[in-house]
Design a protein that fits this description.
Helix 2 packs parallel to helix 3, helix 4 packs parallel to helix 5 and helix 5 packs parallel to helix 8. The protein has an 8-stranded mixed sheet, sandwiched between helices. The chain is α/β, with parallel strands linked by helices. The chain has 14 helices and 8 strands. A hairpin with a 2-residue loop joins strand 7 and strand 8.
């Protein structure tokens, strides 16, 4: 004779095993939504000018859109044609003071050409947002002899900010913002020697990930370095982690390094369920760009619109100065372009 109630505990165990993780994931989603930072500032930006690199798509587009909605003159600097993005912003905000300019961070020549045009045609620059970035792209080097991930994410913005420093000083109080990543904390092996990953050196998925993490740590180091050097001129400089954002950068990186199937699975599950939207991902950038509470805040790092601790390597002044000096060398800064402490 089968005693069915004897099996009830096993049924209960099976139900609990399946249900508890689901409940846990639901709770995690709720926590994620309620703790996502939101820009609460209502500051108007009439008369202000901002540059948003990579402003044609993703977080950059949402940043440009929000700044334009506050009356700001926005210059979208992008490698791709951002004309459609420009007219979409105009259509949504009725702000016609939106410009698009070509900027290819893989080329120092393009960066210098862009900066020269800005310096010659713009009367002011109140906000410089170094948003454009690249994920893992294998071991490719640019014509400038630098690893492409490091040049797009670090060397390019580093050079650009130097070249626009005088205009930022002239427009003070002004702000510099570097979009970094949480990988700067736990996925880096940055040294002065591997700042520019060697050409023709074998890479793996993990090495490519470390290069990306290194570039994002450099964003924080650079932001802190500009803060030190420009604070006396009324220019602030801060960095941020936007969060895990559901954008195309993850799929592009997965495709390039040969794990497209995993990339799609990641995008369709983790990113879809727990990633921020580009609008949510832009909130910390926007806060740093507009909040009156941050008028005199510089050399800080932010997560979800709040100050956050910095990676341990960013605390080491000697190490950071060595990275800065090596970056000056690799970007071929002229003596008159360098910034003194």
């Amino acid at each position: 004779m089968i005693v069915y109630h004897a099996y009830l505990k096993y049924v209960a165990f099976a139900v609990a095993t399946v249900t508890f993780p689901i409940i846990g994931l639901v709770i995690l989603k709720i926590i994620q939504k309620f703790t996502t930072g939101r820009c609460k500032s209502l500051v108007c930006l009439n008369g202000k000018t901002a540059i948003v690199t990579g402003g044609g798509s993703g977080i950059g587009f949402e940043t440009a859109l929000q700044l334009a909605s506050r009356g700001c003159r926005v210059i979208i600097a992008d490698r791709e044609d951002a004309t459609k993005s420009k007219y979409k912003i105009i259509d949504l905000t009725n702000n016609t003071n939106i410009e698009t300019k070509h900027l290819d961070l893989t080329s120092f020549q393009s960066i210098r050409r862009f900066a020269k045009e800005i310096n010659e045609t713009e009367d002011r620059l109140d906000i410089l947002i170094n948003n454009a970035g690249a994920g893992s792209v294998g071991n490719k080097h640019t014509d400038d002899g630098l690893h492409i991930t490091m040049q797009v994410n670090h060397f390019g913005p580093f050079l650009l900010t130097h070249l626009l420093a005088d205009l930022l000083k002239k427009s003070a109080p002004s702000r510099i913002i570097f979009v970094s990543s949480a990988t700067a904390f736990f996925w880096n092996n940055l040294t002065v020697k591997n700042l520019n990953y060697p050409n023709n050196h074998p890479t793996t998925f993990f090495r490519s990930s470390f290069i990306y993490g290194n570039s994002k740590l450099c964003n924080i180091i650079a932001a802190n370095g500009f803060a030190e050097r420009l604070s006396k001129f009324g220019v602030t400089s801060n960095s941020l982690h936007p969060g895990l954002v559901n954008t195309e950068i993850h799929l592009k990186s997965a495709r390039i390094i040969g794990i497209e199937t995993f990339g799609k699975l990641f995008a369709n599950t983790i990113l879809y369920l727990y990633g921020k939207t580009p609008k949510e991902g832009a909130q910390t950038t926007i806060t740093l760009a507009v909040s009156n509470h941050l008028n005199n805040v510089t050399g800080k790092h932010f997560w979800d619109c709040r100050t956050f601790i910095q990676p341990p390597k960013a605390w080491n002044k000697k190490f950071c100065n060595e990275i800065w000096e090596k970056s000056e060398e690799l970007t071929k800064l002229k003596p008159e372009e360098k910034l003194s402490l």
